[in-house]
Amino acid sequence: MRDFSADHRWLSLNTATIRKSRGADLPLTDILEACARKGIRAVSPWRDQVAAAGLANVSKLVRQHGLELSGYCRGGMFPAVDAAGVRAARDDNRRAVDEAKELNATCLVLVVGALPGALQGKATHKDIALARNQVQDGIAELLEYARQAKMPLAIEPLHPMYAADRACINTMEQALDVCDALDPGKSGALGVAVDVYHVWWDPKLQQQIERAGRERLLAFHVCDWLTPTTDLLNDRGMMGDGVIDIPRIRGWVEAQGFAGYSEVEIFSTGNWWQRDAEETLDTCIARHRSSV
Amino acid sequence: MRDFSADHRWLSLNTATIRKSRGADLPLTDILEACARKGIRAVSPWRDQVAAAGLANVSKLVRQHGLELSGYCRGGMFPAVDAAGVRAARDDNRRAVDEAKELNATCLVLVVGALPGALQGKATHKDIALARNQVQDGIAELLEYARQAKMPLAIEPLHPMYAADRACINTMEQALDVCDALDPGKSGALGVAVDVYHVWWDPKLQQQIERAGRERLLAFHVCDWLTPTTDLLNDRGMMGDGVIDIPRIRGWVEAQGFAGYSEVEIFSTGNWWQRDAEETLDTCIARHRSSV
What we know:
Order of helices and strands of chain A: EEEHEHHEEHEHEHEHHEHEH
InterPro entries (chains A, B): IolE/XylAMocC-like, Xyl_isomerase-like_sf, Xyl_isomerase-like_TIM-brl
Largest interface: A-B, 34 and 34 residues
Strand order of the largest sheet of chain A: 5-4-1-11-10-9-8-7-6
Keywords (chains A, B): Isomerase
Organism (chains A, B): Caenimonas sedimenti
Protein name (chains A, B): Sugar phosphate isomerase/epimerase
Pfam family, one (chains A, B): AP_endonuc_2
Helix content of chain A: 40-55%
Oligomer: homodimer
């Protein structure tokens, strides 16, 4: 297991972590500049931030600053109510692959979607098994496109509290079952993003990380689970402020040969997004050394 | 599968559902009287409510009204920081068994506990594997006592969003692994409480309900998962208002031979606890017929 205590060379910043500074939106260009200034070597930007700043512009800045992309957020959202919706998701996901390629990302992270309409507050049906089948079909189709682009797809199992509206793949075991079905040869084209926030509770976590192995461990995300947690989406904690034994999980992941970045991804309306981005970044760096 | 559409003979009321009426505490004695008046044949009361009303008094009223107890809420909370804490939990759980016996409950429901201190906002450690071992040890010890009292223990797997502070048993598979370890003969002394709110998302739910079988399916709880859910604890929905396909899950449970009550358990600070208990009860009855 790598020693993170002396520097932050393996820290990546998911750009959502400082998408707001003192409550105001911080442009992606500023975020990239701040990372470069702090000696952060990798980022994982969101598509809406990239679109707002312009893909070509972001691509240029990433190269200028010498930044790597530990991932690109995000593709997915496969289930739809009709054929037109399925096609729209397919086309949008292909564009996400293209953008990830342009930015030379390590992988495209997939938040796979769930019950159509649920994220807008009104699910069109309650058949989660159907949604799961649609997700697998959608990944299967996208995988062909992504293979040609040589862009690995990382299925991110989301915490079960998001099963209705964001992702109906909710455990490592379930994600790896999809990987086994679609890429039995473990080619590296399909794998998982392990986010400790989503999977820390799972009694089968160590076993499934071992099952994943090096070929399928494409990304490692960190933050912390606060007690109490006051919001289902935007109350993630800074590493060290919650109950997740992050070093233990990182140890399991690295025991399989994972040697990539540890990506900090914190959504925090009430706390970190209210602070100055400078302070948040400094804290991420300090906690990366002490608590990851 | 039983037809619930014509009456509510298989409805049980978990008394938390109307523990508040128009925002004010409703005494258990009033709740029992209201249930009897509405033709509700079973309840599942909470220990604090019973303590406030007096055990002997509640026992008398339950008999007078001819009410059954589909369960008794609740034992558990096994993990502790030291031997004194373990002993205190043991003693308290034995009292819970005694009370359940006095009230002739079908089972004592176990919310098993998790990281000590987390529920108070400050976990004393982050070792969830240790907590899980302590839970299994605690259940093993309590089981001996409960067997003598002939009081079945129902492990309630709680949603993974409660893994830190309320229960570190979070899936049916995990609960049944404990049952297999402690009661391999499926004596009926140890089983599970299936609450759709906690387990609806689980891709292995049907498989694990089949694994449980009749001997281990001791209770069935219903409410609904709202989108969005605005509070991790107290924003449960009325059956039919959310995304859970309750009849499908009830079908799986009943296919194993479960023929007990469907217990309505809704914690709802912002909605149902603000309404008049009469309205909440009437809605429970209507939705039991239409959406369970």
